[in-house]
Design goal:
The complex is a heterodimer of chains A (299) and B (144). With 299 residues, chain A is α/β, with parallel strands linked by helices. Chain A contains eleven helices and seven strands. By secondary structure, chain B is an all-alpha fold. Chain B folds into two domains: 116 residues; 26 residues. In chain B, α3 crosses α4.
């Protein structure tokens, strides 16, 4: 990780856009790098060699997979098994006051459980995970949904972008691959709108502003422990906040599936409208505030 | 303003103020919130004694030819500010409650899982103090 986060650069975007369908193992090499990607054949083969030589066990104990969960007993077990099979990271479930046996299922699958005394929402659950990871001194945190929407095979590629110092926050974008689950038109329209706004503000192309599949560096999740983190609806405003705080964020392609439970945080009629309103307001006030300095945030 | 109207408004204001005092006395309303409602009650009470000319003057200042409408609008503004003030307090309390809930969750996790004891810095400090003490005890035992 770079000692000082750098601003986002357009050149990085261009390389991201060229990404095609890829296996998870190839994703990291396809993701944008700080320097322009070399085209020469010998260096390509060196990268492939690096992929082959990479020992996944070297990641053990360096990171944590954060799963905010609320009444997810149905599919949580399977998701945890798939995560275990794909990465050696510790797993943390933040049970956001579930009324079913989410916590019991998580414990029986070997995950650490932090249980909220009452339901506080997705953002608060994420922030609890950040506080946990910060106190446990992890180097990287990968957040993933509990409903099986995110393919755990991309955890390692996302984490490697952070651990190898390419960025401070790496977001998995479903639209860079162009396959797998594509959300309904209305939701996609919202994503395009906020993607455009985030792209203009952060001066890079943001294709999936609502993706919750992210890897964060220690500096970022320590920064998010503060009350500056929008714990009510963290979304595109988080990307803007990161940019304003001087962190370097990027996207890499991932595959996503439809939620197994078929439920969405933004379902119904009122909630999407409220979401659009809240997000526009949040983006406006984020831009109007003084740019935060991560080194001077009281925790 | 007709006497009948004044009597009704006076009754409402007195009932409001007595209710507020009673709520504070029974500790169902904190003093810090009570003063705003008492102020609102007092303003209504004073309004019943203000002569019609006074109310007309206030309405004229606001550009209204209808004093009751002007007074109603002022009351609406005051209620809006009260609601806003409570929203501000509610936001602060929500933030505090969220932080408290997170702290409780993390502490509970650290107590339930022994290897997570280092989660909380205060517990970590206690452990280090205990370790120092145990080392000192061993040293004292050796010298004895």
């Amino acid at each position: 990780m770079s000692p000082h986060p750098t601003q986002l650069q357009d050149s990085e975007v261009a390389s991201t856009e060229t990404s095609s369908q890829a296996s998870p193992a190839e994703v990291a090499s396809e993701a944008p790098a700080r320097e322009p990607p070399p085209a020469a054949e010998p260096e390509d083969s060196a990268e492939e060699e690096d992929e082959e030589e990479f020992d996944i066990e070297s990641l053990r104990g360096r990171g944590v997979v954060l799963i905010p969960a609320y009444n997810e007993e149905q599919c949580l077990g399977e998701v945890l098994d798939r995560i275990r099979a794909s990465c050696p990271f510790d797993i943390l479930i933040v049970d956001d006051g579930s009324v079913d046996s989410t916590a019991r299922v998580a414990r029986s699958h070997g995950a650490t459980v932090v249980r909220h005394p009452f339901n506080m929402g997705y953002g608060a659950a994420l922030q609890t995970g950040y506080k946990f990871a910060s106190r446990r001194h992890y180097e990287v945190l990968v957040q993933i949904d509990a409903d099986g929407q995110h393919d755990p095979a991309y955890i390692v590629p996302l984490a490697r972008r952070i651990l190898e110092g390419h960025s401070d926050a790496c977001v998995g974008s479903r639209f860079l691959v162009g396959e797998g689950y594509i959300p309904p038109l209305a939701r996609r329209a919202g994503m395009v709108l906020f993607g455009k706004i985030a792209s203009i503000v952060t001066r890079r192309r943001v294709t999936d502003p609502t993706s919750g599949y992210q890897a964060l560096s220690r500096r970022v999740f320590t920064f998010f422990k503060s009350d500056l983190f929008p714990a009510d609806y963290p979304d595109a405003d988080v990307l803007i906040l990161l940019y304003r705080a001087g962190f370097h964020a990027e996207e890499i392609p991932v595959k996503m599936q439809a939620s197994v439970t078929g439920q969405s945080m933004h379902g119904g009629i009122i909630r999407p409208l409220f979401y659009v309103f809240k997000m526009l307001l949040s983006i406006c006030v984020t831009l109007l505030r003084e740019p935060p300095d991560p080194e001077r945030i009281p925790h | 303003m007709p006497l009948q109207q004044r009597i009704v408004i006076f009754g409402v204001a007195v009932t409001l103020m007595v209710t507020i005092f009673e709520l504070v006395r029974k500790r169902r309303l904190r003093e810090e919130y009570a003063w705003l409602w008492l102020l609102a009650g007092a303003v209504i009470l004073i309004a019943t004694f203000v002569p019609m000319e006074g109310l007309s003057a206030v309405a004229n200042i606001m550009g209204s030819s209808n004093p009751p409408a002007a007074i109603f609008f002022l009351g609406f503004c005051a209620t809006t500010f009260l609601c806003l003030q409570f929203s501000v307090r509610l936001s602060r309390m929500t933030e505090q409650m969220k932080n408290l809930g997170q702290k409780v969750a993390l502490l509970e996790a650290s107590l339930e899982t022994p290897d997570l004891v280092t989660l909380d810095s205060s517990i970590e400090e206690v452990r280090s103090i205990e370790e120092v003490r145990s080392i000192e005890d061993v040293r004292q035992g050796q010298t004895e």
